[in-house]
Amino acid sequence: MKRVFLIVNVIILILISAIWGMRFFSEKENLYSTKNKEALKHYKAGVNYTMMYYVPEARKEFALAIKKDPNFPLPYIFQIMMSRGLKGSNIPDYYKKIAVPQKNWTEFEKEFTSIFLEYTAKREKIKGDRKFAKRIENFIDKYADRIEIYPIILPMYQTAIGDTNKLIKYYEYLHEKFPNNTQIINRLGYLYLQKKEYKKAENAFKKYIFIEPDNANPYDSIADLYYTQGNYKKAIENYQKALSIKPDFPNSKIKLALCYIFTGKLKLAEKKLNEILELKNTIPYLTFSAYNIKAILYLLEGETEKIKELYQSFNPPKDYFCFKLPIQAFYGYSIKDKNLLSKAIENSEKCPHFIRQLIAPLKIPLLIWLGKENQAEKLIQSILQKINDLTYDRKVFYINLIADYYLEKKEYSKIEKLLPYLNEKDKAYLELLMAKSQNNKEKCKEFAKKLLQYYNEADENFYKKKEALKCLK
């Protein structure tokens, strides 16, 4: 009976999927002003690629749609959203084409374009704008079956609302109405992830995989969940699955490189980062992030000269200057240059949140180097109060820096209080460092053997493996 019920549910889900697809691909003359079938064909192909997060392919299709019909407004919206920061993009020209509504535009096109222009005009002021959020809700109610609206509209809505709980409530409402809309499912999964509701996030991403098993993005999404939890084995499996479907999927390459770094496979990590840097026509922040991750890689390898070379050679465009600051910070930290590190931290305050997050842990050693131990201790306590709110990689970064400080002071009881926040591998590493600091050779060997079991496939120059091998000599 259960099996029959399961089969019936699968059939229903497949039928819903087919109906959903037909609603988008059915010709609705009153929705589009273009009469050019080729333009419409390329536009729909671009939307499909957008839904799959295949940015270069989507941009190519929208460019072809514009070429076939320069007066068709909708491709311009997608091109603007996807072209920011790319060399040779024609964003000012795109804005000119949609700035004034044309008589032949449909009501759908007019309203979609108007919302988009209001958002781009206000941008920073849109946060907390309940009136704008309500406008989007009304638009979604009116055109809920138009799947092309979601990749553009939902990010705007999230910016306007801001509150995660309210967003989850609204997305759950949308999910009940449209259970097969993968844009809603994916965003809901990430909101659950943000709230640390891991099982709900996993279920959302698994449903996404079930609906779109041949798309790289759902595997990338569930891999992000496992990465956040520090389950690098499962994360690697799913990033690799995403890349087996789409070998140039940038986010999976970036995160896979990080997974390799944290599991000690440093050569593989560098290979992946180089592959990202060789990609053409990709999103700039992914390329520049690869440089930042290379700096982390070199820092963990103890390759100060390589970080220096990266710092001196990496000169991003002015609009992306913030991406150089983490490299400056890591280089300053590696050579204990207080001024270099201090300036990087100070300048990062004007940068996006993810740049500040990358540099923030280095405030601890900086305060110590400046002789401000009381401030360092206060900062450490404030961090520990919120440590469980961090992703696992950031948690480990903070704890290792804090442990370094307490090791120098030989305050081992304080290090022991950090251990419950870590998995067994990272606990063993801190326990090894304590044993080494206390000159307890037997304990040092005990934890060294554990580490070598955990990291038997890691490269010889991986910092945890190096420390373990030293203890065994």
From TrEMBL:
It comes from the Bacteria. The chain crosses the membrane at residues 6-25. Keywords: Membrane, TPR repeat, Transmembrane, Transmembrane helix. This is Tetratricopeptide repeat protein. SUPFAM superfamilies: TPR-like (SSF48452). PANTHER family: CELL DIVISION CYCLE 16,23,27 (PTHR12558), CELL DIVISION CYCLE PROTEIN 27 HOMOLOG (PTHR12558:SF13). SMART domains: TPR. TPR repeats lie at residues 182-215, 216-249. It comes from Thermotomaculum hydrothermale. Pfam families: TPR_11, TPR_8.
